[in-house]
Amino acid sequence: MAVSPKGHRARKRFGQNFLQDSGIIRRIVRSVAPSGQDHLVEIGPGLGAITELLLEENGQLDVVELDRDLIPILRVKFFNYPGFAIHEADALKFDFSSLRQQDEKLRVVGNLPYNISTPLIFHLLSFQGLIQDMHFMLQKEVVDRLAAQPGTGQWGRLSVMAQYYCDVESLFGVPPECFDPQPKVDSAIVRLTPKVQPTHLAKDEAQLANTVRLAFSQRRKTLRNNLRGVLEVEALENLGIDPQRRPETLTLEEFVKLSNYLSSYLSNYQTEQAWQPTQ
Fold first, then answer.
1. Which residue range forms the structural domain that includes residue 262?
2. Which of 10, 84, 241, 271 has the fewest Cβ atoms within 10 angstroms?
């Protein structure tokens, strides 16, 4: 187990890899470009490498940290910043709306543990109306999936749902040697900017999420197989979608089209059932 220069042992169960490269740290903060009026939120500040520069640029910063051994280190290091607040919590369960003050939006930053990055992004997307933007350090493979285009091997459930809610920009890569301990994979920085309104509007976002999940349940199989019992072949054809296509070939617009058809169908079915005369 690696020991940081501060004497804290990086914990594997928390997926800790502490960023050490000052050039990369400065580049991340330049990408965030905080102003003095921003309400910043950092997830997993670790030993405060990014935290320090964020506080120098912007006095108000909430951090969410699960490792209780890091809390006193952070409190001592940043005691002279009155706008600095620590929330000892699991970011996967944290209510980010509790941080919002008046109508301001949050700007979220984080070197996310690779083992929870995907579920954490889905959790944050549930607060997308409260968030101005998000800048994350992630496994490069995850960033590639977030920014993927239809027809590629990286295009999947995460790509569709992230791009439904956000504009996604892959900013730059970060090699393993920038961390202590060094991860076994490359990392990258991504910017997610929630859309004011989705480019293609789903009637029911929960239905969209379910449709996408079902479509990608078995990537190598066709829509006809994956959506069997949910959408008939004839319905797919009427929507102009070949049932023999695989899910990774569908665009975001086509997934929304499928979802909206199902929303209308289920709504009409429920209405018909409600009007059935009692026997």
1. 205-274
2. 271
